[in-house]
Specification:
There is one protein chain. The protein is α+β, with helices and mostly antiparallel strands. The chain has 18 helices and 20 strands. Strands 3, 4, 5, 6, 7, 8, 9, 10, 11 and 12 form a ten-stranded antiparallel sheet that branches. A six-stranded parallel sheet has the order 17-14-13-18-19-20. A hairpin with a 2-residue loop joins strand 5 and strand 6.
C-alpha cells in the first residue's frame, strides 16, 4: 500500500513527510496549513531564529502548558469507560432514575488510583486505593467518590490537610515518595487514635491489591436515599468485584515496583482490550434511623463500618467496564469528580468528613483545571440536557443566546426566550431539624477509636494477622524517632495485646503502658466479610499463568496446558530464555516473553514444561532459579512435568499442596498456599 505522503530528506538530513492526496493537513491550532514541521524560521540557514515564527511559538507555547497541576492526592490513576445496569430496582427507597427499572443502563467512567504518590509514582506500593465512579444519568451526573477501604483515617474534614501533609513526602527532604513508612505519618497516627481502623485496613493485604479488577470499592460515608413520597433511609454503597477480592504478597508487591511501574494500569487496559471486561456488583446497606440509634457506634463517623452481619448487603446493579480511554490526558487528567454531584433520590448525611468534601472538591477542580467551566470538558459534561443562568468565565466554549442570564425574569412577555426554570421534580434536600447552638465540638458518639480496629483484627485469619503485624513492624522500623514508636505501641495495646506484643518484639522494644482511651473499647463480633482469605474466590478467571519452556520441551504437553488454562477462563503467557522460535518435541514455538524480563511476580501461577537437560542448564541461571523460587515464596501454585525436577531442586522447592503435576495446575492455580509462608520468612 502506497504511503499517503512523500518521504524526503531535507538539507540537514532531517526526515520530511510531505502529505499528498487525501492525507489530512497538518495545521496550527487555528487552522493554518503547515508546510514544514521540522525547521524553525531562521535568518539564513545558520542564522538566528525569528520571533516572527508563529508556528514555532504556538507549538512551544502549547507544549509548555501541556501539564496541569497534578492532584494533591490520587495523582496516579487509571480510567475505564463502561455502563451500570440496574438489576434490582429500589423505587421504594429512592426516586433516582438509574435505580428505577430493571435492565436500565447508565453510562459510567471509573477512575482507580493510589493516594499518596505523585503522578509519576508506581502502581503497587502499600496504600489506600481510590475507586471513583461518575454515573452519567438522565437526571445529571452522580459521582460516587470512594476508596477500596470502607473507612477513612479521620472523622472531621478539618484534619484532612494535616493527614495528607503527614503521609506525603517529608517537607524538608522531599522523600519518601508513595510511602507511609516514615516519621511524620506515624507521628500523626500515634497522636490521632481515630486513624487506627483505617491503618489496620491499610496494613492488611487490602493495602496491596492484586488488580483493580479484583478490588472492592466503598462509598465510605453514610448517605441518604429518598423515595418519591419523601421517605428517607440511610445507605452505604459497596462495589464487589465479580472476580473476587485478591491481594499481592508484600515481597511480591515490592518487587513489582521494579518489574513494572504500570502493573495495575497495564492489567486493566489489557483485560479490557482482550474483551475480559471487569465487572462489579453494586450493593447497598440500607437502614432506618431506629437501627442507626441502636448501634454502639455512630453511622455518621467515617471511621466506622456496619458489619454485613448486622445490615446485609443487597445487590441492586452491576457495572461493566468495556472501553479503554482514547486519550489519557483528556479522560483521566481532566476527569473531575465531585461528591456534591448527586441526583434526585440521593442525599447527604451530616457526616462531618463528607460535609467538608462537598466544599473541597469543587474548589480543587477549579484550581486544577483553571476555570469554573470545567464541567464543559467532555469527560465531565452531563449526557443529559443541562441549562442555567451561569455565564462567561475562563474558557467558556458554549455560546448562550438571548438576554436571559438572570431569574426570575419576564422576558417571555416580550416574546424573548426566558431560559430554564426550576421544576417540582428537581432535587430537594431531605428536610431535617437543625436548630442547635454553634459549637466547635465533636459528638461523644465518635469517641470509641478501638472497638472496630479490634473487630477487624479478630476477623482475620492467623496468616492475615501475621501480615498486619509484619506490615506495622516494617513501617515502624522506618520511623527514626523512638517516642513515636512507643506511642504507636501504646495505641495498639488498646486494639489487641498480642498484636502490640508481636510488633514490639519485631522492633526489639519493651511495651509501654496502654494509651488511655477516650471511651472503653467493646468486643464486637468478628465479621468474615472483612477477611480476604475467608472469602477467597477459587477461580482462574481473570488470572494469568506464566509457562516456562525451552528447547526440546513437549509441544503436546504445552498445547494441552494452554487449552486447559484458557478453558478455565485464565490467560497463559509463554516464557523462554530466548524469544525467537525454539525447536520443541513435536513442533516449534515462539515465546511471549523472555525469561529475564518476565519474572514470576507478573503471574498468578507458573508452570515448568522442560526436558531434564534444559532444567539442569536452567538450574545454573539465576533468572530461572528466581522465577521458580519467587513463585514459591509468593505462595503461588507451581505446575511441572517430570523433567523440571532439577530446576525445582536448584530453587529449593519443597513439595506441598501447591506444587503439582501439570495436569493439576489449572485447579491448583485458583488458590494461594498460605500455610507455606511460615517456613519461608519470619512474620511478626
Amino acid at each position: 500500500m502506497a504511503k499517503p505522503y512523500d518521504p524526503t530528506t531535507g538539507a540537514g538530513g532531517e526526515t520530511q513527510q510531505i502529505g499528498r492526496g487525501d492525507t489530512p493537513k497538518l495545521t496550527t491550532n487555528h487552522g493554518a496549513p503547515i508546510s514544514d514541521n521540522q525547521n524553525s524560521l531562521r535568518a539564513g540557514a545558520r542564522g538566528p531564529t525569528l520571533l516572527e515564527d508563529f508556528i514555532l511559538r504556538e507549538k512551544i507555547f502549547h507544549f509548555d502548558h501541556e501539564r496541569i497541576p497534578e492532584r494533591i492526592v490520587h495523582a496516579r490513576g487509571s480510567v475505564a469507560h463502561g455502563y451500570f445496569e440496574c438489576t434490582d430496582p429500589i423505587p421504594d427507597l429512592s426516586r433516582a432514575s438509574l435505580f428505577a427499572k430493571k435492565g436500565k443502563r447508565t453510562e459510567v467512567i471509573v477512575r482507580f488510583s493510589t493516594v499518596a504518590g505523585g503522578a509519576g509514582s508506581v502502581d503497587t506500593p502499600r496504600d489506600v486505593r481510590g475507586f471513583a465512579t461518575k454515573f452519567y444519568t438522565d437526571e445529571g451526573n452522580w459521582d460516587l467518590v470512594g476508596n477500596n477501604i470502607p473507612v477513612f483515617f479521620i472523622q472531621d474534614a478539618i484534619k484532612f490537610p494535616d493527614l495528607i501533609h503527614s503521609v506525603k513526602m517529608e517537607a524538608d527532604r522531599g522523600f519518601p515518595q508513595a510511602a507511609s513508612a516514615h516519621d511524620t505519618f506515624w507521628d500523626f497516627v500515634s497522636l490521632m487514635p481515630e486513624t487506627l481502623h483505617t491503618v489496620m485496613w491499610a496494613m492488611s493485604d487490602r493495602g496491596i491489591p492484586r488488580s483493580y479488577r479484583m478490588m472492592e470499592g466503598f462509598g465510605i460515608h453514610t448517605f441518604k436515599l429518598v423515595s418519591a413520597d419523601g421517605a428517607e433511609s440511610f445507605v452505604k454503597f459497596h462495589w464487589r468485584p465479580r472476580l473476587g477480592t485478591q491481594s499481592l504478597v508484600w515481597d511480591e508487591s515490592a518487587k513489582l515496583q521494579g518489574a513494572d511501574n504500570d502493573y495495575h494500569r497495564r492489567d486493566l487496559w489489557e483485560a479490557i482490550a482482550a474483551g475480559d471486561y471487569p465487572e462489579y456488583d453494586l450493593a447497598i446497606q440500607s437502614f432506618d434511623a431506629a437501627l442507626a440509634e441502636s448501634l454502639p457506634y455512630d453511622v455518621l463517623d467515617a471511621t466506622k463500618i456496619i458489619p454485613e452481619e448486622v445490615v446485609p448487603l443487597r445487590v441492586i446493579g452491576r457495572m461493566v467496564l468495556d472501553r479503554n480511554p482514547d486519550n489519557h490526558f483528556a479522560e483521566n487528567e481532566q476527569l473531575a469528580f465531585l461528591p456534591s454531584n448527586v441526583v434526585p433520590g440521593i442525599d447527604f448525611s451530616d457526616d462531618p468528613l463528607l460535609q467538608g468534601r462537598l466544599f473541597s472538591y469543587l474548589d480543587t477542580q477549579k484550581s486544577r483545571l483553571g476555570t469554573t467551566n470545567f464541567h464543559q470538558i467532555p469527560v465531565n459534561a452531563p449526557k443529559c440536557p443541562y441549562a442555567n443562568m451561569m455565564r462567561d468565565g475562563m474558557m467558556q466554549i458554549q455560546i448562550p443566546k438571548g438576554r436571559a442570564n438572570y431569574e426570575p425574569n419576564s422576558l417571555d412577555e416580550a416574546g424573548e426566550d426566558h431560559g430554564p426554570r426550576p421544576r417540582d421534580d428537581g432535587f430537594r434536600t431531605a428536610p431535617q431539624p437543625v436548630g442547635d447552638e454553634k459549637l466547635r465540638l465533636r459528638s461523644e458518639t465518635f469517641a470509641d477509636h478501638y472497638s472496630q480496629p479490634r473487630m477487624f483484627w479478630n476477623s482475620q485469619t492467623e496468616n492475615e494477622q501475621a501480615h498486619i503485624a509484619s506490615a506495622i513492624t516494617f513501617e515502624l522500623s522506618k520511623v527514626g524517632l523512638d517516642h513515636i514508636r512507643l506511642r504507636v505501641l501504646s495505641q495498639l495495646l488498646n486494639v489487641d495485646d498480642a498484636l502490640a506484643g508481636r510488633v514490639a518484639k519485631g522492633l526489639a522494644m519493651d511495651l509501654p503502658k496502654a494509651a488511655t482511651p477516650a471511651r472503653a473499647a467493646l468486643d464486637l463480633e468478628p465479621s468474615d466479610a472483612l477477611s480476604i482469605q475467608k472469602r477467597w474466590k477459587a477461580t482462574l478467571k481473570g488470572r494469568k499463568v506464566g509457562i516456562l519452556f525451552d528447547e526440546g520441551s513437549d509441544k503436546a504437553a504445552l498445547d494441552a496446558l494452554l487449552n486447559e488454562i484458557e478453558a478455565a477462563g485464565g490467560k497463559a503467557f509463554t516464557i523462554a530464555p530466548k524469544v525467537g522460535g525454539l525447536a520443541l518435541k513435536g513442533g516449534k514455538l515462539k515465546a511471549d516473553g523472555q525469561l529475564a524480563g518476565s519474572p514470576s511476580w507478573l503471574f498468578d501461577a507458573v508452570a515448568l514444561v522442560l526436558t531434564e537437560d534444559a532444567a539442569k542448564r536452567l538450574a545454573q541461571d539465576s533468572a530461572a532459579v528466581g522465577f521458580v523460587a519467587d513463585a514459591y515464596a509468593h505462595l503461588k501454585a507451581i505446575g511441572h512435568d517430570e523433567g523440571a525436577k532439577p530446576l525445582l531442586d536448584g530453587a529449593g522447592i519443597k513439595p506441598d499442596a501447591g506444587v503439582v503435576d501439570l495436569a493439576k495446575l489449572p485447579k491448583a492455580a485458583t488458590l494461594h498456599y498460605w500455610d507455606r509462608e511460615a517456613s519461608l520468612r519470619d512474620l511478626a
